[in-house]
Design brief:
320 residues, alpha+beta, 5-stranded mixed sheet
Length: 320
Amino acid sequence: MNKKLTIQDAAHAGRTGAAPASPPVHLPGLLTFEAAARHLNFARAAAELGVTPTAVSRTIKTLEAQLKVRLFNRTTRSVSLTEAGSSLNSRMAPALALIRNSVSEALLATDQPSGTVRVNSSYVAYRMLIEPHVEAFLAKFPLIHVEISLDNLLGDIVSAGFDLGIRMGKKVQNDMVAMQLGAEQKRIVVAAPDYFQDRKEPTTIDDLLHHNCIRQRYSVGGRWYEWKFDSEGQTVQIDVQGRLLFDEMRSVVDAAVQGLGIGFVLEEFAKQELASGQLRQILKRHSGMDDAFHLYYPHRKYMPGKLRAFVDFMLNANKT
């Protein structure tokens, strides 16, 4: 016997005694809710969706009226999810992500991926590995926008709304994928020629203890970069001293160019200053090796087309 499944409207359900149908909710309203829940800021959600904050607020009010439940607590200073809003978002966000990923995959299949790729990177990694190839990437993928945020904080890229991050090393959370971007990095000792006008140039690693060395932290309040050298098959570490310290390597290079001290920086990052003569390498027999930079992004069954395009392009552009 054939069985036929029918979907009744609310009026019919009421007449037959069946459970009332769910209230009608349009997908644009759910997309607006998800963006507002992710940003907890109507203005930022509006910017992402390409509408006005007033339109976002109006859509949220309509959605709350349809569901007959408050989704956000609003004050003049902040927006937060209610218990109902948090529950709806936790169940709905993965489904919307799957829809977006499916659309991106379909676009990739036609060689026309689109959307915005949000990248979080240190400035050093961006300048060395991404910036030289941005123009070519944008030319090849005209439907993709790239949004880049530069910092050294090593934060949670997912909760911050980024598609991928770029950092040195491959230690990432269990739900992340890490892929090496470029070669291992060589660190060298550099100084401006003017720095040695009234000083004797160091000829050994220990001589650095008598110089003003420009130190660097990994991030604000983070640990120091260690001055480690490969010397005759052994690793030698020295605790240098200096009056200047930064949390960004570009500031170390700039200070060294000004003759304010000796820096210990990535050779590739300082290649322009070395080529121009603003800096020169000292202690050439001694250098240090750092790990390579890595792209990392959330492990997903379906990788968005825009992200796959960006990752594949940058990995290929930085092949060693």
